[in-house]
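Teaching note: in complex prediction, the entire set of molecules is handled at once rather than each chain in isolation. The prompt given to students was simply: 'Predict the structure of this complex.' The entities are:
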Amino acid sequence: MVPFAGYAMPVQYPAGIMAEHLHTRASAGLFDVSHMGQAELIGEGAAAALEKLTPADVQILKPGRQRYGVLMTETGGILDDFMVANRGDRLFLVLNASRKHLDIPAIEAVLPAGVTLRPLPDRALVALQGPGAVPALATLAPGIAAMKFMDFSEFEIAGVPCLVSRSGYTGEDGVEISIPAEQAEAVAKALLALPGVMPAGLGARDSLRLEAGLCLYGNDLDETTSPVEANLVWTMGKRRRTAWDFRGAERCRDELDNGAKRLRVGIQPEGRQPARGHTPVQVSGEVVGEITSGGFGPSVNAPVAMGYVARGAAADGTALELMVRGKALPARICPLPFAPHRYAR
Amino acid sequence: MAELRFTKDHEWIRLDGDVATIGITDHAQNALGDVVFVDLPEPGREVTEGEACAVVESVKAASDVYAPVAGKVVETNAALVENPALINSAPTGEGWFFKIGGVEAATVDALMDEAAYAAFVDSLA
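The expected output is the structure of the full assembly:
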């Protein structure tokens, strides 16, 4: 257990990161991500209000659907990345643990009269991820099998009313389940009792998301990175990219028109040696950027990394040198993800 | 075979004649988790006591390995390059890192014996 954002977090269970990672890709891993911030936004005009802070198209989101987006700073940086689901009479939000203390006042500041943000600190969140996750869970709640990627719905699991989204942070099929905190242990025990389910910690969560090319706030995204630099233009709605009516839009528009100075890319080190976050990235002896997440990919069975490089060095196949402990480690720019996404589309 | 001695950096050392074999302890491999890469010193390198001369990388993190005694690196464990997981499966056997020559027995004797190291690890818990 290690401290993280005020929570005691399991980095790994007795099986270890490698086994937990590989088991999740082969079968199913259960992750306790209750540190994530949950909240709901209630009232007429909630979606339009949230759009002041995010370039995501929230108003077009149908009831029972969820999407990924970013919250913006005034200067076009990323305040946080988040999930938003339309529950019909309200929006349901999932925020980062380390950022929720900033997100909540930022959202409250843009709300009109009649729209309220309600943090839900009394809810736990678990993720059941992997190709075996939904088949196993469907034995407890058959309706979950009919959900598609990014569907969001209520189900009773082990007698407990839960909010289920078919999504996750591993690149695999699976679900995230929001549970009233006092009943979370009972649900977690019921999930762990399902055939093929193994508990998995934050270490495996990190190696799984990195192989899947998914960003970690604080590593790959921060208040200096824009959604254009971060290669998250796909999270910006078409209507939003015409109206430019969100906080920080000016910088995004300029970068889309004129090109961003730097871009987030996949980086494949040659050989077996991992290159970690903050490793300088060079082209022909000149520093062009930095690794923001790097480690060993158990499924790829090789080191994997992502980072930001100058636009001119961002083309696939560009030869790089990663400066690890004073030695130049050869690497190349590569497409993301390292492990193909296997969502239930 | 000579008995193992231990350092507070969680390395073990075994002296045969004036050649010391060095690796990391079972406690260290357990804390590191699955080892995926090792960076070993060049044979012939002169090292001072406490000098960082190897790196072990697990899925989690990178850690330095220090020379517990001064001397010259005479051999490294080539098997680790192909199979770094030997450090997890046999930390005090096939998972050895490197050998240092020209070592004085007294410098090794001064290190912790097995009982002292076990007490040291307990004191960290």
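Point out the following to students. Chain A has a mean pLDDT of 97. Chain A touches chain B through 17 residues (CB under 8 Å).
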